[in-house]
UniProtKB/TrEMBL annotation:
Belongs to the KptA/TPT1 family. One of its GO terms (molecular function) is tRNA 2'-phosphotransferase activity. Keywords: NAD, Transferase. Catalyzes the last step of tRNA splicing, the transfer of the splice junction 2'-phosphate from ligated tRNA to NAD to produce ADP-ribose 1''-2'' cyclic phosphate. It comes from Aphanomyces astaci. It catalyses: 2'-phospho-[ligated tRNA] + NAD(+) = mature tRNA + ADP-alpha-D-ribose 1'',2''-cyclic phosphate + nicotinamide. GO terms for biological process: tRNA splicing, via endonucleolytic cleavage and ligation. This is 2'-phosphotransferase.
Amino acid sequence: MSSDAPSPADTRLSKAMTWVLRHGAVELKLPISSDGFIPLASMMALRQVHGATLDDIQRVVRNCKKQRFALDTSDPDTSKWRIRANQGHTIKAVQDSDLLVPITLDEAQQGLICIHGTYFRHWESIAHHGLCRMARNHIHFAAGESTDVISGMRTSAQLKIYVDVAAAIADGIPFFRSDNNVLLCAGIGDKGVLPPTYFVKVVRTKDGAQIYPN
C-alpha cells in the first residue's frame, strides 16, 4: 500500500458513508434535506460507520481524492454539523435545484468537454438506446479528459463517449455540475435516457481510435 493510499479502516468507513449518504438515508430513517445534507451526529450513531470518531470522519472527507463528500462546519457547535454526498444519489428527496449548479447554454457553448466512460460490453445497447441513469438520479459525466478530472469517470473505462451538452440544453434537457465537478444529467422519460443523437463521438480509451460515428 502506498503512503497516499487510505488505510483499510478508512476505506471501509468511506464506503459506508457513501452508501448512507447516497442511497441509505431514507431507508435508515435519517432526516435528509433537499440539498442532501443529514446531521453528522445521526450518521455517526449508525452501526454502519462502526463507531467512527469525528476525527475519522473529517480525515475521510479531507483525503477523498474524488471529493465525494461535503462537511458543513458552519455552526461552532460540532453537534450541529451536517454532511452530504456531492453527487451519485438514488434518494429522490434530494433535489437538483438545491444540490447542483445548472449549466447554462452559454457555458456549454464555450467548449465544455463532457465525457461518459463506459465498457465495450455496454456499447451495443448504448449505441441503440442511449445512456441511461439506471437506479441513480443522474447519468454521470467527466468535465474534461480523464487525466484532468477528479471524478465522473472510472479510470478503467474502455470507451469515452463525448456529449454535445449545448445541443441537449437547447432541446430542453438540463445538465448540472456538482461541487466536485461532476457533470450530471437526469435524461428524459421515465427511464432517464440521453439519446445517441447527442453523442459527438466515441473513442477507445487505450489508443484514441474513433469507433462512432464510423
